[in-house]
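Quick check before the chapter quiz. The format below is the same one you will see on the exam, so make sure you can read both the input and the output lines.
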Amino acid sequence: MELKLTPAAEKFISRMVRFGGAGENAGFRLMVSAGGCSGLASEFTVEAAALPGDAVVEVNTVKFFLPAESRLLLEGATIDFSESPTGGGLSFATATPSTCGSCGSSSSSSSIDISGLGHKH
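Here is the expected output.
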């Protein structure tokens, strides 16, 4: 699977896993599904081990636990992280633009807000 991380995303995800309290073999479980105005809806958790059906995908220093749908939607994507005074989040730039059924706009990236730095977003 081809998946890229920007240095900012790698740093953020590595910190989440390291300080998530799930142990030294922990990984970042990223669930991505089609939906939302930008084309993707996302949640993440830090897990001690992959769940049944997850594939373990290592990108640079990050170990991802990815369900099947996430692998399909993230193939060839670049994951970035940005932070601002009003929040921040992970964003996904994909090669395939999606169109919003409600507003008709087209987008090739989506983001999840992590301003609370909780596990489910």
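If your answer matched, good. Residues 93 and 109 are 4 Å apart (CA to CA).
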